[in-house]
Amino acid sequence: MQHIPMPYLLFLGDVMDPLAAKTARGIYVWRPDSCIGQIRLATDSVSLGLEEMDIATAKARGAKTMVLGTANSGGKLPAHWLDSIKTAIRAGLNVANGLHQGLNDIPELVELAKEHHVALFDVRHMRPALDTGTGIKRSGKRILTVGTDCSVGKMYTSLALEAAMRALDLNADFRATGQTGVLVAGSGIAIDAVIADFISGAVEALSPANEDHHWDIIEGQGSLYHPSFAGVSMGLIHGAQAHLLVMCHELGRPHMRHLPHQPMPTLRQCVDTNLAAAQLTSPHVKLAGFSLNTSGVSEDEARSALADITAEFGVPATDPVRFGIQEMAQWIKDNG
């Protein structure tokens, strides 16, 4: 599996919407020591607060890859970014890209990269040759984050759990399945770009057999209850062969994301459905806890809701941003 060389120079272009820079922000939050600086094309565009630097300075400071850290509608590469990309290549930097449009689809960039002996990483299309999943039992332990819906914190929860488990001296590794996660980890497979028949096989390749006490924490995608993305979620569940599931949810969300006609499932429905699906490849799978986004309510309301969930299901429930995730990591150490 390809690895993207770190440290990074984060390219923010000229985007004005903070949400458009979520990829760069995710990298900086979770791998700050791997971020040399940022480069922008407009002084009033989104900033992460990193040191501003040009490409030559970043190279001199040790940067190995310039990351296109923004997203836009349609995932197309803006033409006016090409000059910066070419400059980075000529300076000897690799370039990593999370947009749908690939750098490797632009012949001029491919030739320039060959000439300067650097690599172009199209994160959505980085993957080894894949087979279909088999469900054959494999060694090692695996946790999969699942959700009641899309965009409920599965990546954040996975990374927070990795850090908390490592703090307890557990051997744990985050396994990325989305473009931001791949750039944070430096490797992984963007599952939304995998042909449907190979999704479970991709997850098996991403989290292969390992030592008995090693934990892979696999980043989930979508939801079994989301009509648009349930297929991706099911492939992840079967390929993960998870020992433990962590359920992610946003407290108070009124309906499935972008689908006002589709009501949210209850936590009980979602837990039961995900456990039943996971039992196909992991008959003894268990629920390890709940990770909630409680930003829409007060701290007292959040604590009360989390206590109710813990009482109902008998496992830890937390908001990892507000309250941390150490209790869940300890539960995994004691019960996993």
TrEMBL record:
InterPro entries named among the record's database cross-references: DgcN-like, DgcN-like_C, DgcN-like_N, P-loop_NTPase
Pfam families: DUF1611, DUF1611_N
Source taxon at top rank: Bacteria
Coiled coil: none
Annotated ranges, domain D-glutamate N-acetyltransferase-like N-terminal: 44-125
D-glutamate N-acetyltransferase-like C-terminal domain location: 133-327
SUPFAM superfamilies xref list: P-loop containing nucleoside triphosphate hydrolases
PANTHER family: DUF1611 DOMAIN-CONTAINING PROTEIN, GLL3100 PROTEIN
NCBIfam families: DgcN
Annotated protein name in UniProt: EBNA-1 nuclear protein
Species whose genome carries this gene: Hafnia psychrotolerans
Lineage: Bacteria, Pseudomonadati, Pseudomonadota, Gammaproteobacteria, Enterobacterales
